[in-house]
Amino acid sequence: MHYPYEGSGKAVRMSRLSGAGNGRYLMVRTADEGGASASAPVPGAGGGSGTGGRAGVAGSAVSPSVSAPALDVDGFLLAAHAAVDAGADALIVPKGRTRLLAPDLFGRCALVVHLSSGLPYDAHADARQVLVGGVTDALRLGADAVSVHVNFGSDGELAQLRDAAAVAEECRDWSMPLLVAAHARGPRIADPRSVETLSRVVTIAADLGADLVATSLPVPLYRMVEVVANSPVPVIAAGTPVGGVDLPGFARAVLATSCAGLAVDARALAGPLVGQAVRELAGVVHDPFIPDRPRLRHLVSVS
Asked: Are the beta carbons of 86 and 272 closer than 8 angstroms?
């Protein structure tokens, strides 16, 4: 007998990452992964006025980046359940903390096990990331995907690239989707939010073997379409708007650049209010009436 879908494990897992089945993703980080930024500046969309409600997205104002406090165990559990109830497609959870979450939670949401970590009290925490697990660990935990963190331009860049490549090989062996959180951080990065820098970052992450790439937004935001055009795999906007930003307006502005979705941090979404914030974002990411934009690959060439 011919089995046409034999070996389609990755496709099954990828489909679980987009709960609405539209190839869009709303992922929520529920715990401190060690040195990862909890929130991010909201770049201006360029011209025009805000979208109403809370502070607008458009315009040149940039909300400051703040460091949100880590969630305690109860806060972590509350945030995880609230995010799932509100419509998150996936939770990104450090390997160890996955053991705190009831298995039935992932009947409604995908699990992405994060395999990188760092020391938040280290002076170079934004740059130093190490592997703390592998794909087989994630499989034992029931993961639908794994993620790793690479800081391009950091002192640890080469080691992180080697680690990401090794995880990509494991993912291929086990038909496991790989999300690479690719950021431009470190002493060799002049402008971490330039289109040229971010375009190169997503290209390298894809070439490592990523199935999805999460990266920062450029300034101005609308130029994210050029970053996306350079990636052969879907790009997710990483970072959490702060300072009372109109969340639905922010999500619409991001999707308008051909991004495949958002990866946001529960800590920066006001802790107990994470459910409300995720619900607002999910309403846009899962909106069937927002058309997919064509991937404009001709806009920028990365040499």
From this structure: no
Query: Higher-confidence residue: 96 or 119?
Result: 96
pTM of the model: 0.86
CB 145, CB 168: distance < 8 Å: no
CATH architecture of the domain with residue range 19-285: Alpha-Beta Barrel (3.20)
Q: Is the peptide bond before 103 cis (omega within 30 degrees of 0)?
A: no
The Cα–Cα gap between 161 and 152 comes to 9
pLDDT tens by residue, 216-249: 999 999 999 999 999 999 999 998 887 778 999 9
The predicted model gives 82-90 an average pLDDT of 96
Rg (CA), the chain: 18
Answer for the pair 109, 102: CB distance below 8 angstroms, yes or no.
Answer: no
Q: 92 versus 303: which is more confidently predicted?
A: 92
Phi–psi pair at 238, nearest 5 degrees: -100, 135
User: In the predicted model, what is the mean pLDDT of residues 265-279?
Assistant: 83
HEC string of 218-272? Answer: CCCHHHHHHHHHCCCCCEEEECCCCCCECHHHHHHHHHCCCCCEEEEECHHHCHH
Give the C-alpha separation, 137 to 217, whole Å.
31
